[in-house]
């Protein structure tokens, strides 16, 4: 059995930032199921929303965030995260990240981007590859730290808790079982402080802007361990994912609309003027629903994002990644509008935490997209998530260092080895892939941008059966990454559906035709669920 002072699962901005800070206090393992850089962060194009300009203020950023969150943000968490942002961003710059800047009156200032729902330009970015640059910077720092062991190609299977081992009076997280994908062995790792930073669950939907790793692992494990999960019905659909038969999950950043891009329907009309005064830069939920409505109304397959008023030089400089990728698919964005559709993008709910990242299970912390801190409420303001990951990593590290040490009794609990039982090798991968595909289509068709009770109930019934099938399959076959991911996807899908069914109103990202109005009297509260 291995033992570390801190174990971090996930290697995006939140996980790596936590690991770097925790390394000053003890030994750290970073467990990541693919390569270090395979994370949602690496795919983030927009940037970090942060107050850095004299024309901006914390109050305005707070106001924009609360407005987007549609009554469900935790204002104290919003204020804390926004106000600690500049200091954390400065630290990122100190370790070598260079945000785009521009010459103003003889000195350099950040070249701030604009995105939907923001009343000011406030998005720090590195062209359209901000997340990738952050990831590279943090991984470079991590390499210098002897206290951190980066365990690539290792997938967390399940959390080990005192409760599950029969010590229910003092339930806490004691460690984690981890599958080493190279040896197929499951290792037992003990720690007093386990940090989930596993990102979101975009892969639960057929169409998503997320990478393949986004299978809801953290939420599913925390749920099985008995931690409280909140607001899973609020899944953000990004309005503009590239629509092309060969393009998989490619985001066209909202920053393109921030630079004047206009959404047009298949007739070439600037349809957003009929939906919202901010037109193409309206909040994301409104734009995504408007696109959905236009596509259905006109029987089209997609809408178009037109930024042809900008010069090719500007587009290549500001959006090199998007420009080159579109060109690879035969689309010259300087000359023609880009075909786009909405796709699942961000999980606004997650494992419920306080403003220090502590979950309801002692010893377990959650940071980044996997967590529900109260920053996003019912709808996330664009580019607030990298900010949250950065700030919460620091806060969680400080809190976990200060936390009460594990009691003597808990330290005495022996951790059993993983029981693989009498299992066979998985020889029917086709079953896993079939179930995986079924969940993703089911969620897209029945639990998407526009919902109804009937569709949700259908999804719920089918998911219950699927979970039973997966459970049976899971116990008969040797575990693999595919199987673990499938099990996690099914759990998270069921949490989304159950949470959506319990909210009989429309708010933020949850829109249902059966209850199109907002009902503060009954539903101005988080949807809180736990296995216990
Ligand atoms: C984007 O670049 O449009 C994504 C930014 C975000 O989701 O925060």
Fold and architecture overview:
The strands form 6 sheets. The chain has a 5-stranded parallel beta sheet with strand order 8-3-2-12-19, covered by helices on one side. The chain has a 4-stranded mixed beta sheet with strand order 1-11-10-9. Strands 20-18-13-21 form a 4-stranded mixed beta sheet, with helices on one face. It is α/β, with parallel strands linked by helices and 532 residues long. It is globular. α12 packs antiparallel against α13. Helix content is 36%, strand content 17%. It starts with a strand and ends with a strand. Bound molecules: succinic acid. Succinic acid binds next to α6.
Gist of the model:
Helix content is 36%, strand content 17%. It is built from 15 helices and 21 strands.
Keywords:
single chain; alpha/beta; FAD/NAD(P)-binding domain; Flavocytochrome C3, Chain A, domain 1; Methane Monooxygenase Hydroxylase, Chain G, domain 1; 5-stranded parallel β-sheet; 4-stranded mixed β-sheet; 17% strand
How many distinct beta strands? Answer: 21
Write the CATH fold name of the largest domain: FAD/NAD(P)-binding domain
Order of the strands making up the biggest sheet: 8-3-2-12-19
Beta content comes to: 15-25%
Q: Could you list the spans in which at least 5 consecutive residues all have pLDDT below 50?
A: none
> What is the assigned CATH homologous superfamily of the largest domain?
FAD/NAD(P)-binding domain
CATH class of the largest domain: Alpha Beta
Helical fraction equals: 25-40%
The whole-angstrom Rg is: 22 Å
Number of domains: 3
User: Between the first and last Cα atoms, what is the distance in angstroms?
Assistant: 29 Å
Architecture of the largest domain in CATH? 3-Layer(bba) Sandwich
Report the biggest beta sheet as strand number plus sense, adding barrel if it closes: 5 strands, parallel
Number of helices: 15
Any ligands, ions or cofactors bound here, and which?
succinic acid
Mean pLDDT: 94
Shape verdict: globular
**Helix/strand/pairing category:** alpha/beta
């Amino acid at each position: 059995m291995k033992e570390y002072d801190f174990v971090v699962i996930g290697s995006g901005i939140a996980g790596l930032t936590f690991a770097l800070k925790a390394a000053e206090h003890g030994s750290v393992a970073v467990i990541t199921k693919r390569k270090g850089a395979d994370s949602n962060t690496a795919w983030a194009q927009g940037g970090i929303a942060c107050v850095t300009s004299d024309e901006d203020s914390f109050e305005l950023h707070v106001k924009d965030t609360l407005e987007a969150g549609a009554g469900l943000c935790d204002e104290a968490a919003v204020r804390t995260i926004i106000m600690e942002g500049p200091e954390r961003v400065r630290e990122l710059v100190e370790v070598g990240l260079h945000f785009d800047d521009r010459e103003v009156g003889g000195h350099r200032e950040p070249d701030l981007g604009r995105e939907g729902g923001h009343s000011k330009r406030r998005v720090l970015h590195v062209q359209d590859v901000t997340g990738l640059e952050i990831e590279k910077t943090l991984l470079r720092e991590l390499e210098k730290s002897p206290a951190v062991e980066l365990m690539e190609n290792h997938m967390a299977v399940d959390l080990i808790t005192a409760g599950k081992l029969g010590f229910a009076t003092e339930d806490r997280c004691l460690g984690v079982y981890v599958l080493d994908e190279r040896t197929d062995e499951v290792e037992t790792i003990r720690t007093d402080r386990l940090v989930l930073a596993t990102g979101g669950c975009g892969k639960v939907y057929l169409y998503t802007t997320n990478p393949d790793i986004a299978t809801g692992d953290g939420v599913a494990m925390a749920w099985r361990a008995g931690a409280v999960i909140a607001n899973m019905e609020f899944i953000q659909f990004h309005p503009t994912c590239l629509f092309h038969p060969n393009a998989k999950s490619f985001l066209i950043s909202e920053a393109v609309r921030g630079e004047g891009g206009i959404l047009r329907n298949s007739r070439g009309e600037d349809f957003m003027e009929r939906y919202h005064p901010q037109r193409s830069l309206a909040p994301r939920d409104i734009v995504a629903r408007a696109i959905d409505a236009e596509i259905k109304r006109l029987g089209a397959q997609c809408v178009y994002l037109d930024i042809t008023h900008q010069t090719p030089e500007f587009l290549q400089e500001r959006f090199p990644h998007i420009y080159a990728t579109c060109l690879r698919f035969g689309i010259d964005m300087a000359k023609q509008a880009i075909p786009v559709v909405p796709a699942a993008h961000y999980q606004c709910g997650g494992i419920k935490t306080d403003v220090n990242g502590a979950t309801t299970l002692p010893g377990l912390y959650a940071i980044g997209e996997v967590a529900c801190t109260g920053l996003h409420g019912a709808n996330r303001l664009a580019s607030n998530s990298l900010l949250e990951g950065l700030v919460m990593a620091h806060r969680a590290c400080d809190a976990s260092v200060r936390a009460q040490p594990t009691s003597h009794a808990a330290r005495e609990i022996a951790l059993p080895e993983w029981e693989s039982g009498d299992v066979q090798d998985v020889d029917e991968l086709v079953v896993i892939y079939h179930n995986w595909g079924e969940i993703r289509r089911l969620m897209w068709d029945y639990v998407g941008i526009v919902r109804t009770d009937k569709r949700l109930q259908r999804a719920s019934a089918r998911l219950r059966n699927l979970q039973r099938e997966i459970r049976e399959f899971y116990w008969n076959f040797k575990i693999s990454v595919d199987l673990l991911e499938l099990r996690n996807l099914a759990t998270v899908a069921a949490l989304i559906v159950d949470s959506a069914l319990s909210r009989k109103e429309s708010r933020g990202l949850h829109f249902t035709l059966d209850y199109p109005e907002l009902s503060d009297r009954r539903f101005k509260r988080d949807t809180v669920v736990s296995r216990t």
